[in-house]
């Protein structure tokens, strides 16, 4: 059983409000008690209200419990945006709750998504970068749909600032980090831009059509 699936099953098991011994959980999940101890530490660190101790047992505190949900990509994007906004407000309690909720979601995401997102994490605050990129989303979405070129002012992680004319092809997110894939006329190649590093995005009057070597299909064909 994959780890994220096991964590989910443990939470489901403990929703009955009863105290469960680590040995019993381990037997049910097909793992060792030591693994269950680590799982409980992970759940607690993710904000799940687990109480108890080794040798005694574990239970969930009284909380609002939701049934399992299946989210579409767009719904997950909306959830991430909402958390980013809540994470940047001045209300300390709301900011803390947004961080706790994000950690709970991260704890049960598929390993592929969490592994990709891990490479984009930041040392200061997990929402600030997402919030900075939100302001560009409407412009970028509209340009992708209309197949309209953009002028971007972009600050690389090195601090270098450049102005680019691009053909926007696709937006996607890795965890809470939003990315724009485009054909960059400055580099004459495909480039991926982090939305939080885009200083300005201006729609140009020039439209574009697919050309050999510059289309989204060809970019995706290059991906391993």
From TrEMBL:
Full protein name: HTH domain-containing protein
InterPro entries per UniProt: CBASS_pafABC_assoc_protein, HTH_11, WH-like_DNA-bd_sf, WH_DNA-bd_sf, WYL_dom
Pfam families: HTH_11, WYL
Species of provenance: Sulfitobacter brevis
WYL domain sequence ranges: 136-202
Domain Helix-turn-helix type: 6-59
